[in-house]
Amino acid sequence: MTFKTSYKVGLxxxxxxxxxxxxxxxxxxxIPFIRDELEVGPEQIxxxxxxxxxxxSLFQVPGGMLADRIGPRKVILAALxxxxxxxxxxGVVGGLVSMLLVRxxxxxxxxxFPAAVWKVISxxxxxxxxxxxxxxxxxxxxxxxxISSLLLxxxxxxxxxxxxxxxxxxxxxxxxxxxxxxxxNSIQDSPKVSPEERAxxxxxxxxxxxxxxxxxxxxxxxxxLSSPSIWVLFFVALIYNLTMYGWLNWLPTYLLEVKKxxxxxxxLVGALPFFFGGIGCVLAGYVSDRWxxxxxxxxxxxxxxxxxxxxxxxxxxxxxxxxMVAQCIAGFLLFxxxxxxxxxxxxxxxxxxxxxxxGFINTGGQIGGFITNILIGKVIAWNNNDYSTxxxxxxxxxxxxxxxxxxxxxxxxxxxxxxxxxxxS
Length: 425
Hints:
Blueprint: H1 5-38, H2 42-58, H3 60-70, H4 72-89, H5 96-111, H6 113-124, H7 130-138, H8 140-182, H9 195-206, H10 221-224, H11 228-257, H12 263-291, H13 296-316, H14 320-341, H15 343-348, H16 354-382, H17 390-408
Helix pairs in contact: 1-4, 1-7, 1-8, 1-11, 2-5, 2-16, 3-4, 3-6, 3-16, 4-5, 4-6, 4-8, 6-16, 7-12, 8-12, 11-12, 11-16, 11-17, 12-14, 13-14, 13-17, 16-17
């Protein structure tokens, strides 16, 4: 069986996204070492973590607009080169101010990347299987932190935290080459696509499955912002990421400080829930496409609700085996919810505005990422450096996000197309 060009493009994007998450999440495993060397406390750590999200959130929409205007390929190549440089420069910083600046500029490079990826997905996959493809690529959100946790647990004792960032910067150079070789703006632009694959794409575009759900047919980004659905997705992404980024960024420190695990055990225990999360995220698109067309929000809500209960149990259980079971189930369900949630923009936003539209929704998510680290840092400081109190913030945000999904998202079937058959006389 021929390996489709669209699969190669998807795998190339997945690799780039995995490295993006490795670079982004490495700071979480190195925080205990940075804290000691730079002599910073929980509030300053919160600002270090949030500096990335400031740059990342500010450049979501500009990155999407660039992808819509000049094509996603150029944006992806520029983003990869930019953030790889600043990943390596993280290992050079000498104090809090330089760390904040480097992390902000690193965030700028990664900020222009996601919307360009969604543009590639919308140009290479139809609505019949776009959500499935997106969830596979989005699984890097979980697999990246899992691999990062294991990789840094091995690298840090050997290289130290500074050289570890140099090595991760080098991995970005490999991604630039892969992206240059395989990623093009659309399936129509690629000379490597066979006539059979191109014909299949056109058939899928006209299929009943691809046209069963409503798309917001807007002519401009301004018109898209007039839709209440886009704003609901914006705020769901913002609130949900208070939980998800809080969990991603603070879990290693929580395991070290509260659960009193060693660095090696933290690497393993911190990785497991995200491996399960990656599996959940991969399945989310297929499950959503297969059984939840037109009612995808119920999959999101159900996974958030049950996953939230498991995350709460993780904070209450002392037995290592039991709390890891709870956390792994939470990882599976909460990342499945994330994958199912991002199926909604893939369906609702028209392909010509996918870059700017998805970038705007993701801006909400990254504002959440920016807020959560500062907020959790302050909550921990207010509670005498009790790192367990950070989970109170995450769990409260999860409840709010689940309720907004259930009450705010409106899904509608596509309007039936007029028949082209002649009327009977």
